[in-house]
Amino acid sequence: MFDNITQRFDSIFRNLRGLGKITDENIDSTTREIRRALLEADVNFIVAKDFVNRVKKSAQGTKVLKSIKPGEQFISMIHKELISVLGENQIGLNLSSGINVILLVGLQGSGKTTTASKLANKINSMGKKVSLIAADTYRPGAVDQLKQLGKNIDVPVFYDNSNNAIKICKYGIKESQAQNINTIIIDTAGRLHVDGEMMVEIQKIYDLIKPREVLFIADSMTGQDMISSIKTFDEALNLTGVVLTKLDGDARGGAALSIRGVTGVPIKFIGVSEKVDGLDDFNPKKIADKILGFGDIVSLVDKVEKVIKEEDVLKIEQKIANNSFDFNDFRDQLYQIRKMGSMTDLISMIPGISRKIKGLKFDENQLVWNEAIINSMTPNERVKPDIINSSRKKRIALGSGRTVYEINTLIKKFSEMKKMMKKMNNKQSKFSGKRLLRKFS
Fold first, then answer.
1. For the segment 217-252, what is each residue's pLDDT rounded down to a tens digit?
2. Total domains, the chain
3. CB 131 within 8 A of CB 172
4. Cα(310)–Cα(102) distance, rounded to whole angstroms?
5. In this structure, is residue 95 part of a structural domain?
6. Which of 140, 146, 81 is nearest to 112 (CA)?
7. What global pTM score does this model have?
8. What is the per-residue burial (b if ≥16 Cβ within 10 Å, else e) of 87-117?
9. The domain spanning residue 79 has which CATH number?
10. Could you count the other beta carbons within 10 Å of the beta carbon of residue 202?
């Protein structure tokens, strides 16, 4: 998501960086391009108009600083106003020490059931006891799906066979309290806001359970249509937040920029992958950085530090220093990289890199194939790759299902990488996530 609007802003910023001074003329031309970029990205017209007017007002009333280039100063204004449109402050769940009921609502197919399990997993990882209630009595297989998802994350799922959503909620809350569980997530049926009978049902559930949080699960692929739905549900249930799903898809992303400005309801979480941990807190600054192509070094560091331990880093640095880094260590590095996710996504998080690799896609299978090649080597070959002659290469190719050419390429790249890593190590280690964060913060 955001690829198109990011490309448009990249083009705008290239022109801005060449500005010798800020004038009424380039303010008008720039804001005109911004308005066009926002509307093409499906941003609500009123939100786009308000954003452009604020940028224009800010630019016209600014005092040009001698220490900053005019173009960079203009870009900073756009960045600040974009954060403001998205909501400025990060707003999390309102959880207390008492009973916390979280009601998930939304349209059909928005991803409520999957989001329920992701949210449960997130709360569970915070050390809180959490349960799920399967109150979707309309969609075939919804209860079984939630039961399986709950089992996968070791979270209890409560339901009964009454086929009555209100009774199921009563039962689930009672059972949760009996097990001293104080955070309860209710997965409800998807409903259209024009469906009067189903809207009455969800209002009855709301009145009965008095939830602390009412989260609207919004499919980002639906675009501006979601805005009217959020407004209708908010009028009926007093929404406390929005969870924007499928943000890793191909939608234009304009709806995400419009939600807060049009509805006043804050976005609290975003779905970034299908994995159980693919639910991130909504951070306006991080999203603004992503839209404007500024990278996301903090998220990159978070990913690195979740996978790579400090002691492992020191161990690798020592191996590089004494030139004992071998294919066993390289295989471990490949495995850790795969655990962090897509290489394309990881590299796009580095500030300034996303513009340089625009349109470039990495073949994620290459990491798997390289691991297969290394696994087909003998323990001695992994430690001493110099002994790998032509007959050994044929055996490795046969065992890994790859070609001799690929074996040669991997060995060559490994040799080049060792030389490069040794040079980097001689200057200073750049592998530690904590050091990386200090460098960019």
1. 998 887 778 888 899 899 989 999 999 988 765 556
2. 3
3. yes
4. 37
5. no
6. 146
7. 0.70
8. beeeeebeeeeebbbbbbbbbeebbbbbbbb
9. 1.20.120.140
10. 22
